[in-house]
Write a structure and sequence with these properties.
The chain is of the alpha/beta class. It is built from twelve helices and 16 strands.
């Protein structure tokens, strides 16, 4: 184990040296797991848009339109002509599949139940047993507020990691990232035990949201902070270490390999105050579902979506690092103010760790209208 720790810790050095910011915390990655080979399409994102997907007045999605968007997206991503063949690119009947939802903004903005239900329906259609599908999130109160069960055709496990909140029972003591940010007592973030010991594949279902510390929160942050313990310690006062922490967590095996598909739910989004919904006026409606195996590419496109919406509302840029824009305490409900110095650069940093394509000129964004 000690030798494995040394090898993995050393692997971060080239990325760190390549970064413009030399103030990089010293990370120690401990994992007994190796990389796994799965189907990947680097630098490709399929963005499916439908004006009919959600009613902005009632905020209810249309399940039939969502189904069509999901079908078109999966076929567009894989190039297959049959939906079952598209899903079989990623999933086999013998797989145990985790569906990582995002409920931090629930019930107002979360991984839409119709999107999640459609994923479950397609998994069972290709032969995965319902008992081998698990919808999960870290915190029970957030997960329960959505009520995913009533949207599903079949009963599947729906479980929170921390029951009660703060419990470490479902985290793996053998797989963790250790780093001291601010002299905190607990310097380890452990991976969820289901990821290491149960799931063979993971489908990541984030939202399109801004984030006070990370700049935006999409595929990478839902993958990283959503699958480890003790992560909020990365940002304190105005300082945030999200630039390097998100990518470091997301690149740790077996999480890195087992997230085989990202389905970004952009039916609703949050343009300020994320990852929560501090005020309903910060909700907007991209009416998009994006499909990719490349979390970096999807998040790079997300920056532009959030930035465009913020600009249209007169908010400051997610790239604004001026200390004049900081507030001293509490969460900012003023879209011209930040609580932290935002780090949307976490997406480019993640690309330096081999997690995907960041260069906008090298990303193939296939747009489909339904």
């Amino acid at each position: 184990m000690k030798r494995r720790t040394f090898v993995l810790g050393s692997a971060i050095a080239p990325a760190a040296l390549a970064s413009v910011d030399q103030d990089i915390p010293k990370y120690r990655i401990v994992t007994p797991y190796h990389a796994e080979q799965h189907y990947r399409i680097p630098g490709t994102v399929v963005s499916v848009h439908s004006a009919k997907s959600i009613d902005e007045t009632t905020e209810k999605a249309d399940p039939n339109v969502v189904r069509e968007m999901m079908t078109r997206g999966m076929l567009g991503l894989t190039g297959e002509t049959k939906l079952g063949d598209a899903w079989r690119r990623f999933i086999e009947p013998s797989d145990i599949v985790g569906i990582k939802v995002n409920c931090s903004g629930a019930p107002k903005v979360c991984s839409n139940p119709f999107v999640v239900a459609e994923i479950v329906r397609n998994l069972t259609a290709v032969g995965v047993k319902p008992a081998n599908i698990q919808i999960y999130e870290r915190f029970e109160d957030q997960l329960k507020s959505v009520g995913y069960a009533k949207y599903l055709d079949q009963e599947v496990p729906i479980q929170a990691v921390e029951v009660p909140r703060g419990s470490i029972r479902n985290y793996d003591p053998k797989t963790y990232v250790e780093v001291d940010f601010f002299g905190e007592d607990d310097t380890r973030s452990n991976m969820i035990r289901w990821v290491t010991e149960r799931f063979t594949k993971i489908i990541n279902v984030p939202n399109m949201k801004d984030h006070g510390a990370a700049g935006v929160t999409g595929c990478l942050k839902n993958m990283a902070y959503g699958n480890f313990s003790n992560v909020a310690r990365s940002h304190k006062w105005e300082k945030t270490n999200t630039k390097t922490f998100i990518g470091t967590l997301a690149s740790t095996e077996p999480l890195r390999s087992r997230v085989v598909l990202n389905v970004m739910d952009g039916l609703k989004g949050v343009w300020h105050g994320g990852p929560f919904v501090l005020n309903p006026k910060f909700v907007f409606y991209p009416k998009i579902i994006a499909f990719t195996t490349d979390p970096v590419s999807a998040d790079r496109l997300l920056i532009d979506i959030i930035e465009t919406e913020r600009k249209s509302k007169g908010a400051n840029s997610v790239w604004d690092r001026s200390r004049d824009q900081l507030i001293s305490s509490g969460r900012s409900v003023d879209p011209t103010k930040n609580h932290f110095i935002r780090e949307p650069g976490h997406i480019e940093y993640a690309s330096s760790l081999g997690l995907g394509v960041y260069d906008i000129n090298k990303i193939k964004n296939k747009k489909i209208e339904v």
